[in-house]
Amino acid sequence: MKAFVSRAIPPAGLKVLEESTDLDITYNTLDEGFSKSELIARTRDADGLLCLLTDTIDAEVLDQCPNLKVISNMAVGYNNIDVVEATKRGIVVTNTPGVLTEATADFTWALLLAAARRVGEGERLVRSHNWHGWGPLQLLGGAVNGKTLGLIGMGRIGQAVARRAAGFNMDIIYYNRSALEPALENELKLRRVELDELLVTSDYVSLHAPYTNQTHHIINAESLGRMKPTAYLINTSRGPLVDEAALVAALQAGQIAGAGLDVFEKEPELYPGLTELDNVVLAPHLGSATHETRGEMSRLAATNLVAVLRGQRPANPVNPEVLS
Ligand code: GLV
After folding, report:
1. Are residues 161 and 272 both part of a single domain?
2. Residues 5-27: pLDDT tens digits?
3. Which residue range(s) make up the domain with 297?
4. Is there a single domain that holds both residue 194 and residue 319?
5. Is 19 a catalytic residue?
6. Probe ligand 1: pick from 76, 79, 102, max atoms within 8 Å of CB?
7. Quick one: 244 and 313 in the same domain?
8. Residue 100 beta carbon below 6 angstroms from any ligand 1 atom
């Protein structure tokens, strides 16, 4: 069985792969993804592919890699893979859920607090040597303690964000396709609401839903128009949940107070005007970027890949119907 690893990954996963001496594995050892044509050329004969969210695995790639039996994505999100097309071809797709929940929830709070308390602006002021000392009117931001947090999406990461909000004495509301178990709602002190109520009442709106046709541009001109002028939008899920053109217009107009973005519609491209805005904190897709978490993601992705190639059931199939 042959496999290809599309980009340099942390050592924990490499160890699993290197110990799999029954498999013939080739690697892109660079910390840079291949172009689509190069990816196809390297994967053409492969039975397995370990890829990253920066690789687009669509029908064109699948057509040209007819031996593929498994695509192991080193990410919890898998919108970079056409799972419907993979399923049609009997290819198992796997992801890395669970291991990045806490790191991503932490980073959501880093962005929320940075946006509310203007950490980026303050840092730029100090770094540019333009800070002339403490001032009673200087860089006043939004309070977090006691405010209302609205979570769109209430899976593992949404719940981990909610757990942290308890320490800030926040009212927490959420919008999700399905309701949590009442016991969990009680434990986390959550209330499920309609999207409109969430937008209208939240001081902080944070996105934790996967990217699908249903969540495409869930935040658009209309939804931004429903938010409070003092509210902040935080996105650590996927860029296209937000209509970036509408967000830039809303931030320019002061229609909302600010935003914290870890993900973008067309990464790594930035929507024109975004970097000129002071009321947005921008991060380069760092949600899961801790040594520990990336190590676990790498290990899990490698383990999923190897399992399928050995005819075993992987721990994290996203299209388990292929296995039955
Ligand atoms: C990161 O964005 C992931 O989906 O793992």
Report:
1. yes
2. 999 999 999 999 999 999 999 99
3. 2-99+291-323
4. no
5. no
6. 76
7. no
8. yes
